[in-house]
Design goal:
Elements lengths: L4 H7 L6 H7 L3 H6 L9 H22 L5 H12 L1 H10 L10 H5 L6 H19 L1 H21 L6 H13 L4 E8 L6 E8 L2 E8 L2 H17 L2
Helix pairs in contact: 2-8, 4-5, 4-8, 4-9, 6-8, 8-9, 10-11
C-alpha cells in the first residue's frame, strides 16, 4: 500500500481507503492467475467510473460552451471520453506502472494497451468517487480534460472523419466508400483492428484502433489526408 503514495501524489488525492485504489489497479488477468487473493478486479469500479466521467464531462462542456447545441456538445464529449483519450489521461497520471496484471497480459504489453489503461483510469475515478465523492473526481477530470479539449478543437479531432470522407467521395465519384477489416491481433479482450477504406476497388486509407469503429475512423482520416492532396 505504501508503494501507492507516488500515484496518490499524481492524482493529488490521499485515499482514506487505499484498498479501493488497489482494486482499481487490479486487472482481471491478475485475479485469474492469483485466485487465492481476496481482492476483486477493477471491472465494477470501471463501470462506476465510466458513469462519473460521462456525467462530469457532460456538465463541464455544458457550462463551458453555453452557445453550443446538443449535437456539438455530444461530439465533443465523445472525443473526450473515447478510449484513446482516457488512456492518454492514464499515461499522464502514470497509472500504467502501478497496474496489477497477470503474467500473460504483462508479456503482451498490457501496461501500454489503450483499452487496459482506459479501463484503469475509469476504475480509479470510480474509486475516487467512492472514497471522496464526486467533487474530487470532478477536479481531477477537469484538470485533464481542459488541455485535451484545447488540442481536440485545434486539430478538429472531434470531427466524424467517416461522414466527411463519405460526403467527399460521393461528391467526387458519386460512390459511397466501403470499409474492410484487413487484420486483427491481440487477445479477445484487447484486440487491435486494422481497416482499409475503399472507393470502388481502390484503397484510399488505412487505420488501426482498439475497435472496428475507431479503426474505421482512423482509416477515413487517412483517406481525407490523401483527398486533400488531389
Amino acid at each position: 500500500m505504501e508503494n501507492l503514495k507516488p500515484l496518490e501524489q499524481n492524482l493529488d488525492i490521499s485515499f482514506s481507503d487505499r484498498s479501493l485504489l488497489l482494486r482499481a489497479l487490479t486487472h482481471r488477468s491478475f485475479v485469474n492467475e492469483n485466485p487465492e487473493t481476496a481482492l476483486q478486479d477493477n471491472e465494477r469500479l470501471e463501470f462506476l467510473g465510466d458513469a462519473v466521467v460521462d456525467f462530469v464531462v457532460g456538465a463541464y462542456l455544458y457550462s463551458r460552451f453555453p452557445e453550443m447545441d446538443e449535437g456539438q456538445l455530444t461530439t465533443l464529449r465523445a472525443a473526450l471520453v473515447k478510449t484513446n483519450t482516457l488512456a492518454d489521461f492514464a499515461q499522464e497520471l502514470e497509472i500504467g506502472p502501478y497496474l496489477r496484471l497477470g503474467f500473460g497480459e504483462e508479456e503482451n504489453g498490457g501496461r501500454e494497451r489503450a483499452p487496459i489503461l482506459c479501463a484503469a483510469f475509469e476504475a480509479v475515478i470510480g474509486a475516487i468517487y467512492l472514497d471522496h465523492g464526486v467533487e474530487k473526481a470532478q477536479v481531477l477530470i477537469e484538470r485533464l480534460a481542459g488541455p485535451a479539449l484545447v488540442e481536440i478543437r485545434e486539430n478538429a479531432l472531434h470531427k466524424d472523419a467517416k461522414s466527411e470522407f463519405q460526403v467527399w467521395a460521393q461528391a467526387r465519384f458519386n460512390v459511397t466508400p466501403h470499409y474492410k477489416v484487413v487484420e486483427s491481433s491481440g487477445p479477445d479482450h484487447a484486440k487491435t483492428f486494422t481497416i482499409q477504406v475503399f472507393i470502388g476497388e481502390e484503397a484510399w486509407g488505412k487505420g488501426s484502433g482498439p475497435s472496428k469503429q475507431s479503426a474505421a475512423q482512423a482509416a477515413a482520416g487517412d483517406a481525407l489526408d490523401r483527398a486533400e492532396q488531389q
